[in-house]
Every structure is written in C-alpha cells, then in structure tokens.
Write a structure and sequence with these properties.
The chain is of the alpha/beta class and 122 residues long. The chain has 6 helices and 4 strands; from the N terminus they run H-E-H-E-H-E-H-H-H-E.
C-alpha cells in the first residue's frame, strides 16, 4: 500500500515545508525525501545556517529549496493576505510582519498561497 502512494507521488510530486530547516532530524528527512523524487522539500531559515548544519551532519540538501522568511520575495503579498485573513482581529501589516517572522506562521502561509502542498513543523 505504501508503495502505491509513493508511485502516485512520483507521478505528481508534492511540496512540503519544513519549519525548522537547520534541525538535523529535518535535514535527514529532507535529504531522504528529495533523493526519492516523490516530495520536494522546502527548508525554512537562514540559508547559511541550513547549509552549515547540513555540512556538519553530512546530509545532502542540494535538491531542497531554501527560503529565508526574512528576505522572501513575496513577503509583501503574504503580509497582505495575512491581514485579509485576520481582518476581524484587526491585524496590522506591522503585526503581520512580526508574526510571519515565526516559521510556523510563515510556512502555513506558504501552503495557503499555494507555494507548498503541506507543512511539517513542531
């Protein structure tokens, strides 16, 4: 049964966001998933820190996308959408920017925006 799911994913790979991009356990999982060609990992965090952690632990993350929430090129769009989703709570763009600097909020918004299909964080 598991093999059927992997075959289906290989035909239409999905993208998964990992909110703790430099964590050794995440690097191992992302490396394995990327090498299997059925999920496309996105690692969140500072790329220099992620690459340093990957080098230290020996995991290959060359096929993973790295996104720094602080310098994301669609951050303004994300802030606007976040404010729209939270308008009943009166969230301002400044508050949204602060909240989106947290990887769990940021990763969730990547899924909401259709950049990723799923999120793993915790």
């Amino acid at each position: 049964m598991f093999e059927l799911m992997i075959d289906k994913l290989r035909k239409d790979p999905k993208t998964i966001v990992f909110t703790e991009g430099s964590d050794p356990r995440i690097l191992e999982a992302a490396s394995r998933l990327a090498s299997g060609n059925f999920l496309r990992p996105i690692l969140l965090g500072d790329p220099d820190e992620i690459y340093a952690a990957a080098k230290e632990t020996g995991f290959a993350i060359g096929d993973c996308e790295l996104i720094n929430p602080l310098t994301y090129d669609r951050l303004d769009e994300m802030i606007d959408l976040f404010c729209e989703l939270r308008k009943k709570k009166g969230v301002t763009p400044e508050e949204a920017r602060g909240m989106l600097s947290k990887s769990n909020y940021f990763g969730t918004m990547l899924v909401k925006m259709g950049v990723a299909d799923a999120l793993l964080g915790g």
